[in-house]
Write a structure and sequence with these properties.
CATH architecture of the largest domain in chain A: Up-down Bundle
Mean pLDDT of chain A: 89
Distance between the termini of chain A: 77 Å
Strand content of chain A: under 5%
CATH superfamily of the largest domain in chain A: Peptidase M41
Oligomer: homohexamer
Strand order of the largest sheet of chain A: 2-1-3
Shape of chain A: globular
Low-confidence stretches of chain A: none
């Protein structure tokens, strides 16, 4: 690949998803002259990609690809293609020649959370109630601490991907994450467990928070290891230390992570406890209709506000 | 697998049991468009599967597949198929053209615990007595702390899978496990050893609790590592830490696990000690008839209650 | 291996000695329908196996296969076959058409400890004396603390398997080991070293206890790691912890093992010291006749008892 | 490869980028007689290389290859070739037969930071402002503590290599790095984060400093591990220790690195805080024109100085 | 290799030097029926082996194979064959048809220590003197603490195997090693360094003790890890712990080894210091004649004794 | 390779550079009968090798191979061959039919340090001055603490092997290294850095000491790990411990190494500080003439002595 000038007519193109594992020699100038990093598309890019993948699929008039582009923050091109394919399948199942807005909406959640479980008659009441409280916790805390995020869908319908329910959370489309954004993401992740504890008591917290805890730990670890966002651990990149064989971490280090998590959890629990009635109201509504959207959620919050004001 | 639109007539289907070990790139949208996670079947699913696998096997009138579906919580499809095959073999051995309820029952325990050892004449009396006390411990504690579980069979017949005896324990069919459920599972696992200690003394506890301790440790570890259910270790996912090279665990951490186990064990021992007479009664019955079921167990408990009330 | 129903005429049988290393997927229902764990045979099983492997070998009248079955606790089928083959070779060497009881006895010890070293003229006197004291220690402590075990042979004849001598120890045929049994096994293992220290002094303890210490450590480790038999380390299965990456063991943990070993060793030393005269008597007899059996050992103990009583 | 004298007409030439991973035996005298280490070219070498790679590319009169050689400190030969190719492509895109100075300048930044993102209309205002403050921080601190470095370009145009912006920093062409140079490199790396904290507050520091922290950690680690530049860790080469299996690092060691980083960060923050107005002025200018060069940066600094003096 | 009875005419023989690394399944009864461990030959065995390997080599009358057998403690059969071959080569070099006693003696040391370096004219005087003192240290301490060992040869002639000199040390032919024997082996190993320190001072100790320290460490480690000979570390087999993943060793543990080594070294230094004059006398003799044997060593010691007595 | 006596006409010869990694079985007697370790040649050996490799190369009269043999301490045979080849190339470049003394001298330094960089016009003055001070430090400390070493060449001409300069240091030709020799080697290695600190201040120490620190660490580690030359770490061979899985090193251990290095560095700094004027004089001379030899170095030292005496 090196040292010959005569093969000028030949262009070698290569792609990789694991830049970090390539032999450095391959990346040096003189091997592949031009490196093009393809990041996630921005809103314009998403619009173009959606247009491309719906070029051979007739869309109903109520479908706005630009609107869809705005709702699909952090989707890759392939995920967008997947979304349009899924919508087309749903339209075909309806024996319809056109993709309706409703097809796209359903496809949207299928892509993210998996298809809905059809028959829910065998789910125990207690499991449905746990799910409702848990998802209400995620949704409510989002509205309380990160109102710029869109909670477009809360559901207690189990998915084929294994989740008992689901609370959709779309953050604004940004280049950077702030420290407070990352802490809020942790708080939102922990809110399901916090809601369970408030309503059912500490002895009855469930395994349902497993993915939430995993996600919260990952975010916290990134804050510590790569972003220098925790005073205790300072401005070191711990991956660099690790690559250099320094794998000994101070006990206080883990202890500090645990404390941070406990602190964020306590804040969330306190916030939800103040709005316990509203939390239950959202859960109750979920048990009635299984799925609610941004608008209904806001309505429930408004009703609660008015009621509180009247009570005061 | 990527980048060509022309192979539209071809559908690639792949299945895996080890999602966690696949190259992430395989899982991204654009590779396999639709991911379907096949979890354990619910009661309806189990019923359908049982029906499928008995379609070519004539069933006696006393067999109710729906009832069987209710008793086979957390069975996979393959395990259900295995159960029906085993029952068919037993019927064939009886030279019977029909699968009877008794065939299914025996098959049920064979699938779970292995086939029964035929000749028990060479088992030492002390070994039989240890098994009886040990299994009585498991069964009795279940009735005392988790009465919603079904103890459908207690036996001191050794199995070809190596167990000296067996105490069947069917929990309710749920989506989530509560903290208290997990602690009760640990308590039930430890009850065999506790019963041994109560009856034979600390010096005579045996190796028979080996699998119980393994299982109890696994449950406790899950509570700590993935479910954030122990205050001491907090809301961190320790697998995430581990994957990131943080493998140093505080000594206090292990110490805490040990203390929890000791505490749960003490509770179990105390509870069984209060019912020592009943424990012995169950064991005595087991030594007489080798196997007892849910009903007989409940009867023994009732008899004991009446006797206690009369005595009081 | 999965998913096809049509190959119904084909039966796949597989065997393994390392169940723990198989891919779990192979073991799931639907792959190999029936799993049969073949444990060690019980006394009846051993009798049947012995009968099978002597079917083509004429046995003398003084051979009782049932008696032999009783003496071969924890022998596998292959080991039993090996035993009968070895006896047949010995009979053949004698140019005898029949296997005598003596052939089987010699074969028995060959199978366990290896063949005897023929020419012992070059062994130093001090080495013979060390062996005699060491083996007398093993044998005497067995009689003192675990009289239910059979010490069928004590010898100072070196074997081709490298041992300087050998003290046969047959425990009763049981399903479970008690804590006290395991501690006694450790005590018996340590008694060789203890006898050396008593007779020759601490500076002259030898490398001859190497295998004993290895065995004692293995038993103690099992008590701690898998059987929850040590208060200090509690009811955790440490292999589960280890498999989950928790490989940090508290220093106190090792310290505790060391203390336990020291305590058991002290007990053994004290017990042997009380019977020092008897210990020497057994060793003296071994130096005279090289090998003694259960009966002669009991006789020496009886003689000592009488002498002690007379002295008192 | 060894031991034969007769193959005198054959010359074996080999090249490697990973001298450290070769079998030492290959490197010993008698194998490859002459080892030639090809380091980075000095200014004359760079001039010759640039001349070679522009021999078949017509250059406009305003292009000075010697000047370019002076600006490309630490470029390898291949990187220089890459630079000329990139410039030729840009000229071709302009449909120009000659490479202009502007082509080379754009190529220069493309080679280092990647191509510019064309459409910037979708970038959120807050993200643009964060980038401007962050890059202004890097540029300003360079002028304050290492005025011998050239800051030839500051930009808030995102690149296709993933950066939000870019601040070019050319150090003088030297054989050695001093301790103070390395500390200044760390200070410059940390200045982006420091600027963010000053302007937006500690809660709003962002993930944008990720690469900076990685780079700062790498420099600090080199100071400690290979260059003996930290009193606390002394004059040991820790890679030698590591290769010899000594992988235990004192907790105080990591603690010390953290403290050093904190100290350098505090110094930077203090320095920028004193010039907060100037920092904002540079950022404001960046928001207006997206990219500024060395001259404009110096002008902004001069204006600020005069204003300060007038104010005083 | 298992399960077929029909291949009765075939005998499979296998040999291994690494029993510990074989799959255990291979070793189980039923696979290889008979295991024969071939240890080192005893004196009779060595005599027979020597006879075999000299059957086609004419021996001079002054050669006694039985005597040679007595001097070759712990030689394997192959090493004995090697010895006879080496002697035959030496005889052939002498153009002699018969192997003389002198050939065997020289062969003996060649086999153990390597061939002598022919031209010693370029060795620095200081190096010769260091070797002489060092070897005298080994030899003298042997006579002082382990007089049962034979010091058949002390030499300051460097060998082709890299040693500067050599002090032959033949222990008695025993089955077991006592604790005191092992400590004496350590003391003998450390005596070279101790002699250097006494004569040249602590600043001038040399790298010449490298192999001695390695050997001493190995013996000490065996005492600790496998033979339970150190109170501090007790009766545990640390290899068993290690195989079970317990790799954490207490700092005190290493500290204790260091202390033991220091203690043994101090004892040796003290003992040699008392006999410093004799040490120098042996070294002086070595510098004169390069090599001395058991008899001359004993004579030097006797002379010293008489002189001391006269002086007293 | 074993067990057959009939292949007597065949001789198998094998060579290895990695004796430590061979399967031990290969090395046992009976496999390869004779092991010949080929160490580095002594002065006579070097003379013979040089003669061999110049047999087909005409030497000028001013070339003395014996002298060259004396100067090439610790050169292997291959390195000597390499040296003669390099000299022949240099002679050929001069179009000379004979190898002159000057060719050999240049070849000598090329073999050790790499070829000289031809064009030095682009080296910054500060870099030249740093090199001069650094190399003067190495050379001066050698003369002060190890006058038996020959400093045959000090140069500030960069080499193609990457060094900025070079200070040749030939120790006497010995079999053993003393503790004080090893400490002096560390002191000489650290003197470059010490000189930098004295002249330019602590903030301006450079990366130029990187290889020196690596070498010093390697020597210190050998003193500790294999040669038992540090009281703190005692007479243990730490490689033996390591091979046996004991990889935990006490923190005090590393701390002690660091302290030793600091102590040796302080001594060096103090010694150079006393002779600061002389240090600068040597550096100044180097800046003037680029390269000086043993004689000129000694002259500079003499001049300084006289001046100091006059001043006093």
């Amino acid at each position: 690949m090196s040292g010959f000038h005569e093969n000028e007519g030949i262009i070698v193109i290569a792609a990789t998803n694991r830049l970090d594992t390539l032999d450095e020699a391959l990346l040096r100038p003189g091997r592949f002259d031009r490196h093009i990093e393809i990041g996630l598309p921005d809103v314009k890019g998403r619009y173009e990609i959606l247009k491309l993948h719906s070029s051979n699929k007739p869309l109903a008039n109520n479908v706005s690809l630009m609107e869809l582009a705005q709702q699909t923050v952090y989707f890759s091109g392939a995920k967008l293609e997947n979304l349009m394919n899924e919508a087309a399948i749903l339209a075909a199942k309806r024996n319809s020649g056109k993709i309706e807005k409703a097809d796209i909406e359903r496809a949207f959640y299928t892509v993210i959370a998996g298809a809905e479980k059809k028959d829910r008659s065998t789910i125990a009441d207690i499991d449905r109630r746990i799910t409702a409280i848990h998802e209400a916790g995620h949704a409510l805390i989002t509205k309380l601490i990160a109102p710029e995020n869109i909670v477009s869908r809360i559901t207690i319908i189990p998915s084929t991907k294994g989740a008992g329910g689901f609370s959709m959370n779309i953050p604004p489309d940004r280049m950077y994450f702030k420290k407070v954004d990352m802490e809020n993401s942790i708080r939102i992740a922990l809110a399901g467990r916090a809601a369970e504890e408030i309503i059912f008591g500490e002895e009855n917290i469930t395994t349902g928070a497993s993915n939430d805890i995993e996600r919260a730990t990952e975010i916290l670890l990134n804050m510590v290891r790569r972003f220098g966002m925790k005073q205790q651990t300072g401005l070191l990149n711990y991956d660099v230390l690790y690559r250099n064989g320094i794998r000994q971490v101070q006990n206080e280090w883990i202890e500090e992570c645990k404390k941070t998590m406990d602190k964020l959890y306590s804040e969330v629990k306190e916030k939800l406890l103040e709005k316990k009635e509203l939390l239950e109201a959202i859960a109750t509504r979920l048990l009635e209709v299984e799925t609610i959207g941004e608008n209904e959620l806001n309505e429930l919050i408004e009703q609660y506000k008015k009621k509180s004001e009247n009570a005061a």
